[in-house]
Design brief:
It is built from five helices and eight strands; from the N terminus they run αααββββααββββ. By secondary structure, it is α+β, with helices and mostly antiparallel strands. It has a single domain, classed as 2-Layer Sandwich (Beta-lactamase Inhibitory Protein, Chain:B, domain 1), CATH 3.30.1450. The chain starts with a helix and ends with a strand.
Length: 209
């Protein structure tokens, strides 16, 4: 599998994540700390987000086989809202999108095996507990799981697999102690980038100390 296969896939999904997540978001009512919320909470479209965690991406070691199939995706989300094909190197990827109001789920498959996934515009309802002190605990090299233990589950994220990398970008947009949550232009967010499950880059806006 050529490296270009990876680059096209990930760039498309991360562009989608950034564009969608920069839209204005409504403030949600607090109902949980940084733990992943249960089905008893009032987060809108939480079932969509929880099912997203179940999507398995194929691995290069298995020749990109074994990822979640289209049939399994339809069992989770129903018929896709739209679909298209994307050239990637010397192969073609099948891209499927599901819309749930403003929440967008996109999955790309190679030979009916998921190799990239993205969810955007989802917002967890949780207490405002994320602040600058928690952000400062994030260090390069830590795993995605370790980041979740500090911040809780991300609201949005994208992930893609290639012959030599697994890259993930995650965004937190809820649960912040920010200086002005009412001012959408100054609302808080954290974005983390991982390569092969190691944190490589972090950024934040609007956090309280």
């Amino acid at each position: 599998m050529k490296k270009g296969f990876y680059l096209v896939t990930l760039s498309l999904l991360l562009i989608s994540l950034t564009a969608c997540s920069n839209k204005n978001k409504e403030t949600t009512s607090p109902s949980s700390d940084t733990e992943l919320l249960t089905s008893s909470s009032k987060t809108e479209h939480e079932d969509v987000r929880l099912n997203f965690n179940k999507i398995v991406l194929a691995q290069a070691a298995n020749e990109f086989k074994g990822g979640t199939t289209l049939e399994e995706l339809k069992a989770m989300y129903g018929e896709p809202t739209s679909q298209s094909q994307t050239p990637a190197g010397d192969v073609t990827l099948d891209s499927y999108t599901w819309n749930f109001d403003s929440v967008v789920v996109t999955v790309q498959l190679f030979e009916n095996s998921s190799i990239a996934r993205s969810i955007s515009n989802f917002i967890f309802s949780r207490k405002a507990t994320i602040d600058q002190k928690r952000y400062d605990k994030l260090e390069n090299g830590m795993t995605f799981k370790q980041a979740i233990e500090i911040l809780g589950e991300p609201d949005d994220f994208s992930q893609a697999v290639s012959s030599d990398k697994v890259e993930l970008q995650a965004m937190w947009v809820s649960g912040f102690k920010s200086e002005s949550n009412s001012d959408q232009s100054r609302s808080a967010s954290i974005t983390l980038s991982f390569e092969n499950d190691a944190l490589t880059q972090k950024s934040q806006t609007g956090l309280n100390k």
